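Troubleshooting: if your tokenizer reports a length mismatch, compare against these two reference records.
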Amino acid sequence: MKRDNRLIYGAALAVILAGAGGFGLAKLTGHKPVATETTEHEEEAGHLDGIKVTPQAIRSAGIAVAEISAGGLSSEILAQGTVMATPNGQAILTARAGGAVTRLFKRLGDPVKAGETIALIQSRDAGQISADRSSAKARADLAQLNLAREKSLYEQKVSPRMAYEQAQAEASAAQAELRRTGAAVSAAHVTDDGQSVAVTSPITGRITSSTAILGAFVQPETELFRVSDPNLIQVEAAISAADSQRIVTGDRVIIEMPGGATADARIRSVTPSLNAETRAATAVIDVNTADLTPGLSLRVRIMPSQAGTSNAIVVPDEAVQTVEGQQVVFVRTADGFKPQAVVVGQSSAGRVEVLSGLSAGQSIATRNAFVLKAELGKGEGEEH
């Protein structure tokens, strides 16, 4: 009887162990689905799961996303550029006459409108210019009265024609003098009281430089302010003589913005001669964004229309990460990113060719792609 009980207990223990073993196997293998037909790169990186990331988290992590296109390293020209104001986008405001600064209406960084007065300069020259105009107006008025009288006398056959013609000439000269003095008043921006000249802005923008000091005496043509319109900017990039021959007006340019974002632009012109100091030509690039500040230095990627053909994809080298011995890039998906194994080729100036694994038109993580790599490793660690 005792022997029969031992046999029953042993059989029950075997059933329990078998069930536990089956449950453990199912738990370890259940999350890995049976592979069907996959491509070569999908087989290599098939075990790497995607990462769910919200758009807000992407922005918070500083992850930049860019759409890729076909073309080898020869299809791009990398250059360093500087944001500059266009010829109509910056104005230097000077003192139109010598005198003392009596009023300051704006400070550094303040917005201004075209025609707005920024400062007043009390000047003896302003008084002289105003007095000249008043005298010219008086002479012009007198000449007009004399002309009207001589015309009446001539028509009545009282005065000779010569006297009438003389009055016409004097009236014309007086009007010319009045226009000249009026132009001087306008050019100097003399105030209505004739005591000061106004410093006004010819464009709408912001004050980017200010040297005016209240009460200070300034000489004529002294620079007092600079005003820039943030919407009227261009990028000037230095390029080699050889590369300048491959660029034409209208070629596409990708500007790498501060923070990792990019902006599309176009070539406006390329200087036909080289700078005497740098021995480089200057490419002038039209931009359509107000997120750039004059004086900012940044990198540009020029896509010359006369470049050689290539099927290779060129991406920033920081977009390529190594995960479990494989080189991958993180492709944007509907709810985040997915690591995609790639084969890379030659690299130059922070750019690397991807020979296979990507297709033109896909969007990938470029700047701060290592954050996704770290998140992928964290997820794998938690799973194990």
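Reference record two:
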Amino acid sequence: MDGRIALIEAGGTKFIVGVGDTSRRIHARTRIDTTRPEETIPAAIDWLRRQGSDYSAVGIASFGPLDLDPTSSGWGHITRTTKRHWSDADVAGPFGRAFDCPVAIDTDVNGAALAEWLWGAGQDTNASLYLTVGTGIGGGAVVGGRLIHGVGHPEMGHIRMPRHPADGGFAGICPFHGDCLEGLASGPAITARWGASLSELPSGHEGHRIIAWYLAQAAATFQAILEPARIILGGGVMSAPGLLDRVRTEAAAASGGYFAGKAEEIIVAPALGDDAGLLGALALTRIGGNLHRIPASRA
């Protein structure tokens, strides 16, 4: 896929919209607040039109959940989401029709996973997994150059967790599962327990130990399922000082020496920095099977 590519990092708070190319250059970008679909999506299209109309593809890395079944009439739509006004919103269709070019869409975390595998911390591995720990928790995995999908996309943040012995009194905040990984270790779960973000808690606060323990249990679970060469931990919660090292220490204990590799080599930080979202959208267009034309019937 040559030429200019329209890039959209569609988040629950903001859309980052950019113009890139296959050399990974980002030529321009802007931020648009995520309000309602009928406001945010046309604003993104209008900005892209002002940059030109000669796009060879559109890449969209979006919050979800998403319908990613190319045979479905709802392909490219957000499905049931807690983001007000966005359930059943068609994200892919308006961009494909506006620029008459194929569209690649997947979750934002799958986009990040693919970009990190192509160009970042997962480069030169057969299998790597990206887990973002922030307002929510989500994960994506690349095995043999392909993102893992099943009936839908993975929802790694909703795996069930053992309970830390010092955390039994917290019910968890996930509206669907209560004390799944997201319900216990996401940013809002941390604030719900202790009234502050992990970075704001004193260094000796038990929250650091508890959250590292949960993330380490998740890492050990993903090792047992996929044995990835890299588990890349990103997202705002991971900016807490010392958290990555704590997770490595706890993960080594949780694995009991059973899995291959050392925790400090397997569990790593992302490498793509502030461009990760747009590069995730770009990465999705690099895999030919991801690109789809929008049927005229959806106009």
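Descriptive notes for reference record two:
- The chain is about 30% helix and 20% strand.
- The domain at 4-107+277-298 is CATH 3.30.420.40 (Nucleotidyltransferase; domain 5).
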